[in-house]
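lol forgot to send this yesterday, sorry. struct tokens for the thing we talked abt
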């Protein structure tokens, strides 16, 4: 979960996490888990021993974007008000329940879950998770409901073997996740170094929209959330066989 706020983000010293170090392995273990006793990272999540997902008569969508995605995979997902159900293997269902009643849910417990995508090649559900003042996303394995937590809804690479997830705003700071989708569960690498091309300021933020140039390069577009950032500094991340590198 991101705990960086604006003041800390502006003063942060970015450290680059390279390769599959012991520390990175520990972080991965903190990112991926199965629901236990009806909870996972504050979300109400339960694996049920019953099949999904017959349409529910009279069920009303709570969000039109969510309704559009659910309607594309009616055999895999269903929505009943605050309850999202996802089909798992072996005739099981992952039940995810929102906690968005202001009278009943304190800020720490507030969660809304919206199905953002079903990735058939990777056999993953992508769920956008709204928090009280922030957000994140879950990559949920169809196999058993094992869930990997990332900073935001990821953008797939052209081949579908990788994805990138980015948060870049004044409230939460900057968090960039590179996701290797070749395994189950996905492996997540945190990139904390910022580009320093040309006259880029050390306090600059990444532009908020990652765009894959090809399967080995990601460009960041849009308007920086940090006032005063130079709009034309180069923000291109190259992914090779080794550690990711910013290209100038």
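and heres what i got for the seq, position by position
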């Amino acid at each position: 979960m991101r705990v960086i706020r604006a003041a800390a983000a502006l003063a942060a010293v970015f450290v680059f996490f390279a390769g599959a170090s012991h520390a990175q392995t520990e972080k991965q273990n903190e990112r991926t888990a199965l629901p236990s006793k009806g909870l996972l990272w504050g979300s109400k999540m339960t694996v049920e021993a019953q099949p999904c997902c017959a349409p529910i008569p009279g069920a009303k969508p709570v969000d039109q974007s969510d309704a559009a995605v659910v309607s594309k995979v009616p055999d895999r997902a269903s929505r009943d008000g605050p309850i999202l159900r996802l089909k798992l293997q072996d005739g099981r269902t992952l039940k995810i329940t929102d906690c968005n009643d202001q009278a009943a849910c304190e800020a720490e417990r507030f969660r809304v879950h919206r199905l953002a995508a079903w990735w058939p090649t990777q056999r993953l559900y992508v769920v956008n998770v709204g928090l009280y003042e922030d957000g994140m996303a879950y990559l949920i394995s169809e196999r058993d409901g094992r869930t990997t937590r990332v900073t935001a809804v990821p953008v797939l690479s052209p081949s579908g073997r990788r994805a990138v997830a980015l948060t870049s705003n004044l409230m939460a700071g900057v968090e960039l996740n590179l996701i290797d989708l070749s395994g189950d569960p996905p492996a997540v690498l945190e990139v904390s170094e910022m580009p320093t091309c040309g006259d880029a300021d050390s306090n600059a933020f990444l532009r908020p929209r990652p765009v894959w140039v090809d399967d080995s390069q990601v460009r960041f577009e849009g308007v920086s959330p940090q006032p005063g950032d130079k709009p034309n500094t180069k923000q291109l991340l190259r992914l090779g066989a080794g550690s990711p590198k910013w290209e100038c």
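Helices lie at 6-11, 22-31, 64-72. anyway ping me if u want another try
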